Amino acid sequence: MKLFNTASKKLETFKPISDVVKIYTCGPTVYNYQHIGNYAAYVYWDLLVRALKANGYKVKRVLNLTDVGHLVSDGDEGEDKLEKGAAREGKSVWEIADFYIDDFMKNFRALNLVKPDVVARATDYIEADQKAVDLMREHGFVYDTEDGVYYDTSRFEKYAEFARLDLSGLQAGARVGFSDEKRNASDFAVWKFIKPGEKHAMRWEYLGRPGYPGWHLECSTIIHEELGEPIDVHCGGIDHIPVHHTNEIAQTFAAYGHELSRVWLHCDFITIDGQKISKSLGNAYLLSDLEERGFSPMDYKMWLLSGHYQGTRNFTFESLSGAKARRLNWRNRIALCYQREIVGDADVYEKVLEAMSNNLNSAEAFAIIDNSVISLGDWKKIDKLFGLNLISDTPDVSEEIVNKIIEREKARTEKNYARSDEIRNELSLSGISLRDTPDGAVWEYLK
Ligand code: AMP
Ligand code: ZN
């Protein structure tokens, strides 16, 4: 299997460190609904897990849920996103986290994504976070300010390497007056103190004061606790490269002296009608918005997989309609396998898997599927490889429908076209259409 490692910027042949491939995927901040762009990452990393398993690897995947510490600025300033959600909805931060975790997991299932082996909530790892900060202190990587415990990025020689950062530019561009206690512009909080009177419901005692972990810390800690570094593959959105992942790497080195991950995969952003996704533009669609317009989560998944995870994707409802039509076409090709003996082309599944093993090239795999005659056996394997629910959404039709089809055939041979049309209409109400072929009618799905 080959994967494009964003750290080395090279397509590399994947070699697991041990017999279980360790994967970590940065998860959502659970303070609001996730829009369709957010789900792209989870669909793509599910593909990675499925492709590795199809290649015979055992996989252990950990996904985190950020329920504390992610500030609205994405940096060390501003309100905690969970506090913001609580104020917006008049609920407690814990209720907000529970509600949006449930919603996220519900959509995760609707997209038929394999449940990660560990789903880790940041607030369950506070003690481990504090131990990690202790270790960083012991190794001389952190300093205290009035605001919190900060990581001294000048102490980690390779800090700029991963994201090829221009640190002198960053230093020059740092805002005057911003946290004057920070030694370097790129320094970041690993632990934040709660000031007297500050509203922050999630709080833990540490260093004699109430506080909470910095946003990046949970990933280093959860990886250490659940997988042990270095892991094989670390995944996230492209926006994570310059700060979040850079800081995860720095923390892991400072606390444990280890490399964090061998391979890094980053997926690019989705635009909608050529624009970035944003609430203010009114285009931050949820999966439920697509459903209201007649598109299932699987249609959206088909749309995502028709392109490459490392390319910018532009979403339009027109292209989503195309994905839906393709899904219907595939379902009907499978339905036909249940009605006629279909002799498939040789090695279709192997070719599809080969495309997927080449840096998850789902677009190429889809083109192979479009252009091949596929047996039921290969369809089943293909369906598993992508998790598209094509087969379970393609049950054999009921006996009643089969009898209607037979009755219609009889009406047609007897030239009773009125009855034949009547049956056709009845069937269409059950979502089934009939296509006449030289050797009799075959049923197909209408949607
Ligand atoms: P959050 O839940 O706010 O932590 O965001 C989750 C992640 O979703 C972000 O860090 C990005 O990696 C990803 N994301 C946000 N917007 C997009 C987008 N338009 N396309 C793809 N991924 C996105
Ligand atoms: Zn992370």
Query: Class of the largest domain in CATH?
Result: Alpha Beta
Bound molecules: adenosine monophosphate, zinc ion
Taken from the alpha-carbon principal axes, the silhouette is elongated
- Write down the Rg: 26 Å
Task: Briefly say what this structure is.
The chain has 447 residues and is α/β, with parallel strands linked by helices.
Descriptive account of the structure:
By secondary structure, this protein is α/β, with parallel strands linked by helices. The chain folds into three domains: 2-267, HUPs (Rossmann fold, 3-Layer(aba) Sandwich); 272-386, no CATH class; 399-445. The protein is built from 15 helices and 17 strands. The strands form five sheets. The protein has a five-stranded parallel sheet, sandwiched between helices. Strands 6-7-8-10-9 form a five-stranded antiparallel sheet, with helices on one face. Helix 2 (81-89) crosses helix 3 (93-110), helix 4 crosses helix 7 and helix 11 (348-357) packs parallel to helix 13. The chain is elongated, with a radius of gyration of 26 Å. It starts with a strand and ends with a strand. The model has no long low-confidence stretch (mean pLDDT 94). Bound molecules: adenosine monophosphate and zinc ion (ZN). Zinc ion is lined by residues 26, 219, 244, 248.
